[in-house]
Specification:
362 residues, alpha+beta, Creatine Amidinohydrolase, Chain A, domain 1, Creatine Amidinohydrolase, 6-stranded mixed β-sheet, 3-stranded antiparallel β-sheet, 10 helices, Pept_M24_MAP, metalloexopeptidase activity, Xaa-Pro aminopeptidase/Xaa-Pro dipeptidase, Peptidase_M24B
């Protein structure tokens, strides 16, 4: 179990404990998908602390994973007081905490009370431990991600017939989001990026009232969510006949993506993958317009470790789901990006996002 992996890595002595504050990390270790919760791991117990708003949900989700769920009376007991009481019962002396997911002010106040009223004598900031565990997906996690990718593939196929002159970016984006929901997506993986013409040069642009015209590039970056796990895919089309420049840049980006995909293997670094793509984009006449980085891990969050770029020393392992998404973005002209989710399995590399990548003229 994931919680056992975390315990083996962090709680190496009987007098240690750990506090988890991040909603995403709490969901990862406990299964609880709500908010307003804190996880406390002691030598013998897994506690999930919440209030009346999420108590029943927490019992149903985290209780199945062996967590003791405690409903805090917010009117009569502060969170630091409850944590202190549990640490005192466990006789914990060393307390690890997620330093990236609590403010300095909050931690100073909480730790002062804990150290004054319990046996804890040492607090240790812990950053990235759970995030590293999250890099490697289990078969169950992968199944959810494959389903999310399949929903996105079908939703995109469903809206392509609606691409007509005069439709706006916003209208088409709303329809895409609706199709994903109709097919079973819990929510959108992130705010859908759907841009026409020169606006496709905005890597993270927001859909507007810009209407579609003949010759426009159409850039669509979106994803679905199943059991909290996300997909992330980008496809670029041309409305009407693609001109020579559109064809040239599309082929360039496609070559850059395929070069990186072909390099994915156990033990390769994120920097090495980035370099495969960069060798093509940065040696082209469009080098000044190449997007920075190559991709990122994806899972319960859209952007997870590893972050593929020139400084990424993280090694790719079996079960690691990453995006490969090179792009060229030329202000005033437009942008072309192609993105897929890929994973290394015992059987080899698997591409989760299946929508065709040929330059389609709609």
């Amino acid at each position: 179990m994931k919680i056992n992996q975390l315990r083996q890595q962090v709680l190496t002595s009987g007098d240690s404990a750990m506090l988890i504050f991040s909603d995403i990390n709490i969901r990862y270790v406990s299964g609880f998908s709500g908010h307003a919760a804190t996880v406390l791991l002691t030598h013998e117990h897994n506690y999930l602390l919440t209030d009346y708003r999420y108590f029943e949900q927490a019992k149903a989700e985290a209780g199945q994973q062996g967590f003791t769920v405690i409903c805090r009376d917010r009117a009569n007991q502060s969170l630091p007081a409850l944590i202190t009481e549990l640490l005192q019962q466990a006789q914990s002396q060393r307390l690890y905490f997620e330093s990236e997911h609590i403010s300095v002010q909050q931690w100073q106040a909480m730790s002062a009370q804990i150290m004054q009223q319990s046996q804890v004598s040492d607090t240790i900031a812990l950053a990235g431990s759970i995030e590293k565990l999250r890099m490697i997906k289990t078969d169950t996690e992968l199944a959810s991600m494959k389903q999310a990718a399949a929903i996105a593939d079908q939703a995109l196929a469903n809206i392509l017939p609606l691409v007509k002159a005069g439709i706006t970016e916003r209208e088409l984006a709303i329809e895409l989001d609706y199709q994903m929901a109709k097919l079973g997506s819990e929510e959108v993986s992130f705010a859908t990026i759907l841009l026409f013409g020169e606006r496709s040069a905005l890597p993270h642009g927001i859909p507007s009232q810009r209407a579609l015209k003949q010759g426009d590039l159409i850039l669509i970056d979106f994803g679905a969510v199943v059991n909290g796990y996300r997909s992330d895919m980008t496809r670029t089309y041309v409305f009407g006949k693609a001109d020579a420049k559109q064809q040239q840049i599309y082929q360039l980006v496609q070559q850059a993506q395929q070069a990186a995909i072909d390099k994915v293997s156990v033990g390769v670094t994120g920097e090495a993958l980035y370099q495969q793509s960069a060798n093509i984009l940065l040696n082209s006449e469009y080098q000044a317009y190449a997007g920075e980085g190559l991709g990122h891990g994806v899972g319960l969050q859209l952007h997870e470790q590893p972050f593929l770029g020139p400084d990424c020393t993280t090694l790719i392992e079996l079960g690691c789901v990453i995006t490969i998404e090179p792009g060229i973005y030329i202000p005033g002209w437009g942008g072309i990006r192609i993105e897929d989710d890929v994973v290394l399995t015992e059987q080899g590399l698997e591409i989760l996002t299946q929508t065709p990548k040929t330059l389609t003229e709609l």
